[in-house]
Design a protein that fits this description.
The structure is a single chain. The protein is 90% helix and 0% strand. By secondary structure, it is an all-alpha fold. The chain has one domain (2-71).
Length: 72
């Protein structure tokens, strides 16, 4: 039991050490890059929202028209 606990502690310590080493290898984006990509994402979200609003409105009108036509 004591050996299992020791192995668990060692494996956890090794795991965190590996994480630390990998994080040192990461190339982090600059603030300017983050701001630029954030603006692209925000613009894209609003563009898709507008697109889906238009498509949804058009489909709603078509379906209501079909149901009204055949509902008589």
């Amino acid at each position: 039991m004591a050996e299992e606990k020791k192995n668990w502690i060692e494996s956890t310590r090794d795991y965190w050490g590996e994480i630390r080493n990998e994080m040192r290898k990461v190339s982090w984006p600059s603030r300017r890059q983050v701001e630029g990509t954030t603006l692209v994402v925000i613009f894209s979200v609003f563009a898709f929202a507008g697109y889906f609003f238009v498509v949804d409105s058009a489909l709603t009108r078509v379906i209501k028209g079909v149901l009204t036509y055949f509902g008589k």
